[in-house]
Amino acid sequence: MGHRLRIAGWVAVGVVAGALTTVSLQTLARGAMAPLPLEEIQQLSAVFGLVKTDYVEPVDDKKLITDAIAGMVASLDPHSQYFDKKSFKEFREGTSGRFVGVGIEITQDDGLIKIVSPIEGSPAFRAGLKTNDLITRIDDTAVKGLTLNEAVKRMRGEPGTKVTLTVFRRDENRTFPVVITREEIKTQSVKGRLLEPGYAWIRLSQFQERTVDDFVRKVEEIYRQEPQLKGLVLDLRNDPGGLLDAAVAISAAFLPENVTVVSTNGQLADSKAIFKAAPDYYQRRGSGDPLRRLPAALKSVPLVVLVNEGSASASEIVAGALQDHQRATIMGSQTFGKGSVQTVRPLGPDTGIKLTTARYYTPSGKSIQAKGIVPDVMVDESQEGNLFAALRVREADLDKHLGSGQGEEKKDEAREKAREEARLRLEDEAKKPVADRRAPEFGSDKDFQLQQALNQLKGHAVLVSKTLTERKEEKKDN
Where is the PDZ domain positioned along the sequence (predicted)? Predict the structure, then answer.
C-alpha cells in the first residue's frame, strides 16, 4: 500500500494535547538522520556544562536533557510535545478510549488550562464543569507556568483519589473550587436516537477505536426502528478529533466508494498520501470491513452535519469530505481549524515525542489549518443569537500555530472590534441568573441548532445566524 500514509509511530489527528488524544499505529523504517549542525551542538554542550558547574545548586543530568528536548519540541507548534514515561503510557491508553482522570478535553489559554469540553458522563461533567471554564490551580499548584503535559499529569491519578480544581468561569466572573474523584473514564463516543418519525440524530463526541463499530450498531438500531428514514443529522459539535482511520470510515459510510476523503502532505515522502472511501484505507489488520452491515440507504439519505468551534481535526476531515462531495449540508459555526497530523515516535521503550508531520487537505485540495470548515449555513446556538463567538479560541488563536501553507490573510481589524463588543455583552450576560445562561444539552428538545437542522431536512425555513461570519486566517508575525 505505497499510496497510504506510513509514518513511524502513531498518527494522530486529535486537537487536544492532553486529557484524551487518540492515535493509530503504523510503521516504517526510518531513513538516514539529517546531519547535525556542529556549531549549535557545541553551544548546547557548553550551556549544559555551565549549568552543571555554575548553577546555584546541583542539577540532575537527566532532567536537563529531558527539559531541553521538551523545550525544543514545544517551541514548534501547540500540538508537538515530549512524552516522559508516565505521560507516554497515558497517551497510549487513550487509544482504547479508557483512562483514569477527571474527564475533560483541554487546551491552553494565556498560560491557563481551558476546558474545550467535559466528556459526557465523566466526573468533571457530573461536577458541572463547562466548556470555556479556565483551570487556575490543580490542588495547591498554580497552573500558570505549567505545560499542558504537566497539567494533565497532575489531573491524572489512581481511581478513587481526589483532586481539587480551582476554576474561573468568565461568564459568571467568579472563581470556585471543585473537588473531583478520579475514575476510569470509559468514553461512549456514539449516541443517537429517532427525533421523530422519519428523522434521526447521531452524535460523535470523539473518534476512537470503538467509534466505527458503535456507529454501525447505532445506525442499525435506528433503521430497525425506522426503515424509511427520511433524513439524518450527524452531530460533530465539540468533537475534538481522534483516529484518522475512524474519520475516513465515517466519511466512507456516506460517500460513494473510492472517492477521496482526505489527503496529507509533509516533508517526508511517505507523508504525501491520499485516503479514499474504501476498506483498504480504514479497516484494521485482521478484520473485515466494519461498514459492511450498514444499510445501503445510508449512502443517499438526506444528511445535515452540525459543527462548531469545538469541532476539530478528525471531525473537520469528515465535515470537509462530505461538504466537498456535496453529500451533506454543513450547518453551525466555523470549525476549530486544526488541519495538521501528529506522529508519535518512540525515543525508547517508554518515552517519545509527538511531532507535527503533515497538513491534511479536503478532497478539493483546501488546507483548513488555522482556517477551519466554513458551514454552508451559519446557525447560532440559540434563537437569541451567538453573541460571544468572537471570544472563542480556535487554532488561529494559539501561540506558534502552524500556517495553512496556502497564503495568509491580513489581520482582521473588524474581529478585534467584535472581540471588544463581545466582552461588553459578556459583562451584561454575567448579571443574569445562571439558569438563563446555561446552554441546552446537545440533542435535547431545546437544542436550537438541531431544530434548524431538522428544518433543513424537511425543506422548511432555517433561521440563519444573526452574528456569525467567516473568520479568516490572521497573518502571523515573522
Answer: 88-156
